[in-house]
Design a protein that fits this description.
By secondary structure, this protein is an alpha+beta fold. It has three helices and four strands, in the order αβααβββ. Helix content is 37%, strand content 24%. Strands 1-4-3-2 form a four-stranded mixed beta sheet.
């Protein structure tokens, strides 16, 4: 019986480590723009030249992760307000060709992360 419990604990630990790795890679992109690409929608650009630096600071500082916006613990989505506008940011995972989803978002070698910032109505 102990063997089954050890196997279950091992799988749970491996899954938790994988999620922690994904969150760490997402945090590096969100906070420092390291390890991925940034995409900004036309609606965000329309807010003016002054808006994007302030919005990027808010995205970098974001820490309001909870069950409603981060159910998998990957730190891949958030919302914020800037100058009366509601914005979303989202991190997606692509394979190196950018034609399909990544086979393993915890592995930066086979994953290109894209952080997209958009107005809520553009979602």
């Amino acid at each position: 019986m102990s063997g089954r419990n050890d196997d279950a604990r091992g799988k749970h630990t491996a899954a938790a480590n994988r999620v922690a790795q994904i969150a760490s890679l997402n945090d590096a992109l969100r906070r420092h723009r390291i390890g991925g690409r940034l995409a900004v929608t036309a609606g965000v650009i329309a807010l003016g030249d002054h808006a994007l630096p302030a919005i990027l600071q808010q995205v970098a500082a974001y820490d309001a992760f909870d069950e409603s916006n981060d159910p998998y613990g990957e730190h891949d989505f958030g919302s914020l307000h800037h100058a009366g506008a509601r914005l979303f940011w989202k991190i997606d995972y692509y394979d190196p060709s950018m034609r399909a989803g990544s086979s393993d978002p915890a592995n930066s070698v086979v994953t290109i992360r894209v952080l997209t910032i958009m107005l809520a109505e553009e979602y």
